[in-house]
Design a protein that fits this description.
Elements (H helix, E strand, L loop, with lengths): L2 E7 L3 E4 L6 H13 L7 E3 L10 H11 L2 E2 L3 H8 L13 H16 L2 H8 L4 E6 L2 E5 L17 H15 L4 E4 L6 E5 L2 E5 L14 E7 L2 E7 L3 H11 L5 H7 L18 E2 L1
Parallel strand pairs: 1-5, 2-3, 3-4, 6-7, 7-9, 11-12
Antiparallel strand pairs: 2-10, 5-6, 8-9, 10-11
Helix pairs in contact: 1-2, 3-5, 7-8
Length: 272
């Protein structure tokens, strides 16, 4: 396991996940960081820079040029390894599994050797100190980079992850994750577990806004991100990515609920 320690971070820390090849959303989150006075060294991405949308190479270039810290997502690991799929572990034949083939092939064709080498070198965990708290940032889980953990997941699942994480990096007070695509905050297994959400796809709540998090001395705020969804949709149409994730950018509804737990209830985030 590769661990990157950022040391002591002062001031607000902006955390986001899943740019998902959505160039417009990625541009918007960096504009948001600048507007809040958050420097690049205080911005962290939880991974999956590349996924559903139309601009994988351009999005990677923007993220790399920004100088922010990035945790490896399953998409980065799979592309770096030259794998044939995204590695999400979708059950064969499900809608999510079938839809992933189209966008992954598009990303695989677009990402070059240098970017794959960058992906291969990304850390599995980023840690830092913030005020009197120790924070660890991961993608999905320690047991499985593509593990889906939701706000309603069993506490035992979180406990398993926290125990393994502490075995690798020592004691932590806050865990920040991504992968599932839905932002939440929960006190569980002796830590504050924060899913920062993703910026590249709306959280299946009927709105076009996506999500990010800001960690301050007062705590964490889960906030909505507004960006040019129409332009991102147009890019997907032009690229021939018309399997359903294109329409999700405008409708705010995912093309499949296969991956969601039945008991999950979705609500709006605070405005960014």
């Amino acid at each position: 396991m590769k661990i990157e320690d950022l040391g002591n971070l002062r001031g607000d820390v902006l955390l986001f996940g899943g740019p998902y090849s959505n160039l417009q959303a990625t541009e918007a989150v960096f504009i948001e960081a600048a507007a809040r006075g958050v420097a690049a060294e205080n911005v962290i991405c939880t991974g999956d820079v590349v996924a559903y949308c139309a601009k994988p190479a351009e999005t990677v270039a923007l993220v790399r040029a920004s100088g922010i810290a990035v945790v490896a997502g399953n998409c980065e690991r799979q592309l770096a390894a030259g794998a044939m799929d995204c590695g999400c572990g979708f059950e064969a034949g499900t809608t999510c599994d079938l839809l992933s083939a189209g966008w992954y092939a598009h990303a695989d064709q677009a990402i070059g050797t240098e970017d794959r080498a960058w992906m291969a070198d990304l850390p599995d965990v980023v840690v830092f100190n913030h005020t009197d708290r120790r924070v660890a940032v991961i993608h999905g889980g320690v047991t499985d980079i593509a593990r889906f953990l939701w706000s309603v997941s069993d506490e035992a699942a979180f406990g398993e992850e926290v125990a393994l994480l502490r075995a690798e990096v020592g004691d932590v007070d806050i865990v920040v994750a991504g992968h599932s695509g839905l932002a939440f905050e929960r006190e569980v297994a002796g830590v504050r577990w924060i899913n920062a959400g993703v910026i590249g796809m709306p959280p299946h709540d009927g709105t076009q806004d996506t999500a990010f998090a800001v960690l301050s001395e007062r705590g964490v705020a889960l906030l909505s991100l507004r960006y040019d969804a129409e332009a991102a949709f147009a890019d997907m149409q032009k690229a021939g990515l018309r399997q359903g994730y294109d329409r999700a950018l405008l409708s705010g509804r995912w093309p499949s609920e296969d991956v969601l737990p039945d008991q999950l209830h979705l609500g709006p985030l605070a405005s960014g």
